[in-house]
Write a structure and sequence with these properties.
Blueprint: E1 2-3, E2 6-7, H1 9-25, H2 28-35, H3 39-46, H4 54-64, H5 68-73, H6 82-92, H7 96-120
Antiparallel strand pairs: 1-2
């Protein structure tokens, strides 16, 4: 909320999350094309010059695969840390083919870790 030129820290923090989310996706124009929200409005939201409509925050979250509770309120409930949350967000934006490839890669890495663990224990 803006009161006599003062912006609450919560609003500045939300604006920063919105900015980082948009910039992580591309440009303001890219986001405007995907969401239908004007690029000037997005810039004003990202600099805490205007209070975002909740519907707009939802659109940004959906397009970028960002957790809505984090983008809107800064709440991180489901994840161990922000790195884990960002990985999950990135996964949401992948194609099904890329997700399948990543699953196979993770499976192979897990097997390699087990082999290395056994080697370190002298079991191989």
């Amino acid at each position: 909320m803006i009161v006599a030129g003062y912006v609450d820290m919560a609003d500045e923090a939300r604006a920063e999350r919105i900015k980082n989310t948009i910039m992580g996706y591309g440009t303001y124009d890219d986001m405007a094309d995907k969401t239908g929200i004007g690029s000037r409005t997005l810039m004003r939201m990202a600099t805490a010059k205007t209070e975002p409509k909740f519907a707009d925050v939802i659109k940004i979250a959906e397009i970028t695969g960002t957790e809505l509770s984090w983008l809107a309120f800064g709440e991180v409930k489901e994840y161990a840390d922000l790195d884990e949350m960002h990985m999950v967000q990135a996964l949401k934006t992948l194609s099904e083919e890329s997700k399948d490839t990543l699953k196979k890669l993770i499976h192979r890495m897990t097997l390699a870790d087990k082999v290395l663990e056994h080697m370190a224990e002298g079991k191989m």
